[in-house]
Amino acid sequence: MDKNKELLNKTRVRLGIKPADRLLFVCIAMQTLQFFRGETLVRAYTVSTSLRPPSNVKDSLGTPRGLHEIAERIGGEQPAGMVFKGRRPTGRHYSEHPDDGNLITSRILWLRGLEPGFNAGSAPTGEEVDTYARYVYIHGTNREDLIGQPASAGCVLLRNLDMIALYEEARAGDHVFIAD
Fold this sequence. Notes:
This protein is of the alpha+beta class and 180 residues long. The protein has helices at 2-15, 160-169; strands at residues 22-27, 32-37, 40-46, 66-74, 82-85, 88-93, 104-113, 137-140, 156-158, 175-179.
């Protein structure tokens, strides 16, 4: 984490962004998410990131790297395992859903990139790299058996009860740093 903490601090300084009170640190290589309040590690979670290599480019299906913030929190009033389509609850638990693919369940933390040209807006090459426009979330999944290994289409997946616990702690505006 020391190398990544240094990278995070350099990114914040470069962008003129003050540290948030809370930080969610996602390590793609370790398939983990660590939740910090200040400098204190509150809890660590095992996650699943993309099956594809990390990428910030639209349609790459890679988990985007860099500094983000939680733009929106969705689903707080829904029961564990609720399936979402288009960020709206379907009224069905994933066990009642005919689709056995990776579903968006329980809660959604929608991410917005904070690094223009890297994970916000367009890259200097003209490629779209906007995490928010790509609909990249931290969310629960019906495929809890795959947690701990790459399994998503770019999002960060958690077990449903872990997602609910994280959702209760996280706030809009909290920083999320995703590193290799």
